[in-house]
Amino acid sequence: MTRTVQMTLDDALVAEVDRTARRLGLSRSAFTRRALREALEKLRERELERKQRAGYAKRPARRDELGGWEREQAWGDEW
After folding, report:
1. Residue partners of 28: CB distance under 8 A and separation at least 6
2. Could you read off the pLDDT of 22-72 as tens digits, one per residue?
3. Is residue 43 assigned to a domain?
4. Is residue 68 part of a domain?
5. Residue 78's pLDDT band (cuts 50, 70, 90)
6. 64 is a domain residue
7. 32: buried, middle or exposed (CB in 10 Å: 19+, 13-18, 0-12)?
8. Per the CB 3.0–4.6 Å rule, which of 7, 15, 21, 75 could disulfide with 26?
9. What element of type H or E holds 11?
10. Number of folded domains in the chain?
11. Taking the model in full, what pTM does it have?
12. Domain annotation covers residue 77
């Protein structure tokens, strides 16, 4: 389902959106939908990263905690 929404944007932003949308072969609406989805995804990623940093700040990894994984990281071309 799609919904029509009214937004207030300054003239310079609308002009830039229109130029970019045209260059990409998109309508203004399609470009805006894409931009909003990408912005929301970026915000979700930032929030997950923030939570991960907070978790490691609360409980940092011990020196020996991840030590056994070096061999697993080998690509096989180090011979």
Report:
1. 17, 18, 21
2. 999 999 999 999 999 999 999 999 999 999 999 989 988 887 777 666 667
3. yes
4. no
5. low
6. no
7. middle
8. 21
9. helix 11-24
10. 1
11. 0.70
12. no
